Amino acid sequence: MTLPPDHPLATGRTAGSPLVRACRGDRPPVPPVWFMRQAGRSLPEYRAAREGVEMLDACLDPELASELTLQPVRRHGVDAAVFFSDIVVPVALAGVDVRIVPGRGPVLGSPVRTADDVARLPRLDPAALAPVAAGVARAVGALGSTPLVGFAGAPYTLASYLVEGGPSRDQLRARALMRTDPATWDALLDWCADVAGAFLLAQVAAGASVVQLFDSWVGSVSLDDYVTRVAPHSARALAGVRALGVPVIHFGVGTGELLAAMHGVGADVVGVDWRLPLDEASRRLGGTVPLQGNIDPALLAAPWPVLAEHVADVLRRGEAAPAHIVNLGHGVPPDTDPEVLTRIVAAVHARG
């Protein structure tokens, strides 16, 4: 498989964008900035567009998903769009009974906890991803030279939802399965990797210029467990987009001890959460890896002088890396004042 000839990276439309340059370790004069969960509940126009529409329905409506993707680019002037979707969309499209419950998140009709449960998981038909591809193509067509970031949930995080039956703070059942039944665990994570990989490839084929693999819950595992029981499956999920030469960002929460191993699965950029200063993250990665992050989302509610000082500190520390993509250390909280995000973008761009 190769990139379509009209792909934004193939035509050069996004190849010289600040985001793509930073992903490739070529530091642009002004660092690119975008925000995880920038397309979402913090925007009044998002709430208006989503009124009365279930989350999964919104994700699978190409016109609506495209509009929600574009809203923060119009409002904030960010340097990238991120496709509006959810990490469980490909799981649902495979035929797994999963709902996104407001205020809670993905909830499974039946948890997956045994070898038989895993064997019964349906295979994802790539044709089922057509609404996703249509939404991406529609957004890319409107973005011009602004790149679109596609994304997927990493196998560990997807498996955690499947095993736990919903969100879990500690993933106790998932980690117990990982250690007590490694064969079932490997089969489950291979299934998750294939689902995530297909989801990423559908977005790339439709025009995404960068992808991000989210491992939201992987901070709960030890380094040894990550290297032996998680990383091979994350590498499997990324193999297809890596073969196409599309830049990969890998992000997890609470992963300060895992950064080097996360880079090793095939990431060009490592995302860092708010807990670890970027200069220390760069030191742990040998000073050779572009970084993304890591404004503390809690400080979005702070007085502007406090937040501005914090943003300046993040920018200073980001200079330790070969390139720096400015982002939050996690997603935008739903009660964030959108004007704060716009002000951050202006402040970052003004430093160029």
Written description of the protein model:
The chain is an alpha/beta fold and 352 residues long. The chain has a domain at 45-289: TIM Barrel. The chain has helices at residues 8-11, 18-23, 44-50, 55-59, 62-76, 89-94, 115-119, 130-143, 155-164, 172-180, 182-205, 223-244, 259-264, 278-284, 304-318, 338-349; strands spanning 81-82, 98-101, 105-108, 148-153, 210-215, 248-252, 269-271, 291-295, 324-328. The strands form two sheets. A seven-stranded parallel sheet has the order 1-4-5-6-7-8-9. A two-stranded antiparallel sheet has the order 2-3. The longest helix has 24 residues, at 182-205. The protein is globular, with a radius of gyration of 19 Å. The model has no long low-confidence stretch (mean pLDDT 97).
Short structural description:
By secondary structure, the chain is of the alpha/beta class.
Task: Tell me the structural class.
Answer: alpha/beta
Annotation field: number of helices: 16
Q: Tell me, what is the CATH class of the domain at 45-289?
A: Alpha Beta
C-alpha Rg, in Å?
19 Å
Using the 3D structure, state the CATH architecture of the domain at 45-289. Answer: Alpha-Beta Barrel
**Spatial arrangement of strands, main beta sheet:** 1-4-5-6-7-8-9
SSE run: HHHHHEHEEHHEHHHEHEHEHEHEH
**Helical residues, percent:** 40-55%
Low-confidence stretches: none
Instruction: Look up the CATH topology of the domain at 45-289.
Output: TIM Barrel
How is the quaternary structure best described?
single chain
The pLDDT mean sits at: 97
Q: Gap between N and C termini, in Å?
A: 38 Å
